[in-house]
Amino acid sequence: AEPGTEALSGTEAGALLLCEPAGPVYTSGLRGGLTPEETTRLRALGAEVRTTGRGGLATFHGPGQLLCHPVLDLRRLGLRLRTHVAALEGCAVRLCELQNLRGARAGPPPYTGVWLGERKICAIGVRCGRHITSHGLALNCSTDLVWFDHIVPCGLVGTGVTSLSEELQRHVTVDEVIPPFLDAFKETYKCTLISENSS
To answer: Its annotated pathway (predicted)?
Structure first.
């Protein structure tokens, strides 16, 4: 995500929000993804169901997942929206490489996200209004993948999901991957991050 000529160096371009969701929560995007009957069924499992303003269809969020929501002014970074999405994918691919998972790759639409073979390890769903982004990515670290069995993740029939823990055959926590993820973000976006920890 090379900043364009219009990028303003040395200026604040936004914020990067990271968290691990308490969940379980199913979300649907602007294109829908869940019928009223499916919503009732998912709530009966003990999950929340929410409609969001991001792109994409239905997905799951829960413990063991790293959520990254960049709130960025794309004009200040000199980025187009598609370049921003590709940069988010690049961050997740780089994190996988740092975890010695060499086969990670970004998929073309409608397979947006990061994949290991036919299994998605990171979902991407972004919103952009007046050049300001919201939402972002969800990377499965030690997520209970059974929750994905109750939906068609991202509307992609015949594909699966995976996690860092599944691929590395050890328990990988969100806290463990945050430092290398931040390194990958800084490297990809060519930016400086200032920590403002919040309770």
So the answer is: Protein modification; protein lipoylation via endogenous pathway; protein N(6)-(lipoyl)lysine from octanoyl-[acyl-carrier-protein]: step 1/2
